[in-house]
Amino acid sequence: MTVQRQRWRVLVVVALAQLMVVLDATIVNIALPAAQADLGFGDADRQWVVTAYSLAFGSLLLAGGRLNDRFGARTGFIVGLTGFAAASALGGWAPGFAVLVAARAAQGVFAALLAPAALSLLSTTFRGNGDEGRAFGVYGAVAGGGGAIGLLLGGVLTDVLSWRWCLFVNVVLAAAVIAGARTALPANVRTTAQRTDWWGTGLVVAGLFALVLGFGRSEVLGWTSPETLGSLALGLGLLVAFGFVEVRTATPLLPPSILRSRTRGTSYLVMLLAAAGMFSMYLFLAYYLQRTLGFSPVLAGVAFLPMAVSVAVGSAASGAALVPRFGIRLPVTTGSALAAAGFLYLTGIGAEAAYASAVLPGLLMAGLGLGAVFGSTMGSAAAGVPPAQAGIASATVNTTQQIGGSVGIALLTNLSLAASGEIAGYHAAFWGAAAALTAAAVVAGVLYPPPSRTTTAERRYQEEKS
Predict the structure, then answer these.
(1) CA torsion sign, 52 to 366 to 132 to 7?
(2) Where are the alpha helices (DSSP H) in 24-95?
(3) Is 220 helix (H, G, I), strand (E, B) or coil?
(4) Is the separation of the CB atoms in 22 and 142 below 8 Å?
(5) Are 167 and 88 in contact (CB under 8 A)?
(6) What share of the chain is helix, strand, coil (3-state, %, to 5)?
(7) Which residues contact 142 (CB under 8 A, 6 or more apart)?
(8) Using CA atoms, how far apart are residues 461 and 88, in angstroms rounded to an integer?
(9) What does the alpha-carbon distance between residue 102 and residue 94 come to, in Å, rounded to a whole number?
(10) Cβ distance 400 to 268 under 8 Å?
(11) Are 274 and 268 in contact (CB under 8 A)?
C-alpha cells in the first residue's frame, strides 16, 4: 500500500470517529420526546440527558488531550472508541432515567479522549504534506456539518425503529471504525513522558465543569439565580487559578506557548464564536421547522441536508484551495461574514413562511460560511506544535468549540425567552447568532497575521513565529 493511500485511510477512520462525536450533540435531541414518554421522566429532568454529555465532554477535553500525548494517540483513539460504544449500548438499553443519564455522561468521558486523538492523528499524519489542506477540509466539513446529519438520522431512527437506536447506532459505527483503525492507523507513539500536572488538571476540569453547568442551568433557573451565578463565578475563578498555575509550573497541562501563537490563538477564539452561532441555529431552527411550520422529525432533518452539503463545499474549498493560496485570514473572515449574513436572512422567517424562500437561502449562506471557518481553523489548531503537544493543542480547539456551543445556546435561549412572542423569540436568537459570527469576522480580520508571498510551509512557519 502506498504512503499516500495509507494517509487517506487514516482520514476516513478519524473523520468517521469525529462524526460519531458530533452526531451525539444533536441526534439525541430528536429522540428526547420519545425517550421521555417511554421512560416516564419529567420536563424538568429532560435537559440532563443533553447536559450530562456536554458536562463530561467539555470539562475533560484538555485532560483527554494530555493523556493522548502521554500514552499515544492511537491508544487513546481505540480506547475512546471502545468506551464510547459501550456507553452508547448502555444508554440504548437503559431501563430508566438514571441509567440513561449515566450512559450519556460516560459517552462524554470517552468522547473527551476520542476527539483530540482523532485531530492529533490527522495533524501528525498530514503534517507538511501537499494534501494537508484537503484533509482538514474534509475534517472541518464533518465537524461543521455533522450536527445537521444527526438531526436527520435521529428523526429517521426514532420514527422507523425506536429512540434507542439513536444510541445503538454508535455501536455499529464504532465497530466499523475500530476495525479500520487497527489496520489504518500508524503505530502508537508516546510523545511525552513528562509528569502529570495534577494541580492544573484538577483546576481546569472543575472550572470547565462549573462553567458549562452554569450556562446549561441558566436556561431553567435564570441568570439571576444563586445557583447560576455561583456556578459561573466558581468556574471563572478556577480557570483564572489554572492560568496562574500553568505559567509557573515546569510541566504544564496546557503549555502557554500553544496559546501565544498568533494564528492558533486567533483560531481558538474564532471557533468559540462560530460554535456559539452554529449550535444555536441547530436548536432554534429545528424547533421552528417542527413547531411552527409543522415538519415531522424526519422532514426537519431533510430540511437541514442542504446546509450539511454547503458546509462540506465551503470546508473543502477553504482547506484545499483558499488557505494554501491566500493564507488563513481571508477565508475565515469572509466565511464568518457570509455565515452572519445567513443568520440575518433567517431573521425574516414568519409563522406561514415557505421553506424554499424563507429558510433555504439562509441555510446555504450559513453553511458555506461555517464550512470555510471550520475547514480553516481546524487545520491551524495543532499546526506548528511539537509532536509532544499535538494532543493538547487538538483538545484546546475541541474545548473552545464545546464551550462556545454551551455558552451560545444558553445566551441565545435566554435572549429568545425575553422576546415577546414565539416568532420574535426566533428572530432574537438569529440576531444573536449573527452578532457572534460578525464578531468572529472582526477577530479574524484584525488578529490573524497578514498573508505573505511564500510557499505554504514557509507561510505557516512565519505565522507560528509571529
Answers:
(1) positive
(2) 27-39, 43-71, 73-93
(3) helix
(4) yes
(5) yes
(6) 85, 0, 15
(7) 15, 18, 19, 22
(8) 42
(9) 9
(10) yes
(11) no
The residue with cell 492560568 is: 243
Which residues fall within 8 angstroms of residue 259, CB to CB, at 6 or more apart? 265, 268, 396
Cell numbers at 218, concatenated? 441558566
**pTM for the whole thing?**
0.79
Over residues 37-95, the pLDDT tens digits come to 888 887 667 777 877 887 888 788 888 887 887 777 788 888 999 999 999 999 999 99
The phi, psi pair for 147, rounded to 5°, reads -65, -40
> What's the one-letter identity of residue 147?
G
Cell of 425: 423569540
Cβ burial of 51 (10 Å; 0-12, 13-18, 19+) is buried
The length of the chain in residues reads 466
Longest dimension (CA), the chain: 63
Do the beta carbons of residue 149 and residue 23 sit within 8 Å?
yes
| The amino acid at 281 | M
Q: Do the beta carbons of residue 132 and residue 109 sit within 8 Å? A: no
User: Crossing angle for the helix pair 422-447 and 262-287, nearest 10 degrees?
Assistant: 170
The full set of domains in the chain, from first to last, is 3-186+255-465 (1.20.1250.20), 198-254 (no CATH)
Neighbours of 130 (CB within 10 A): 11
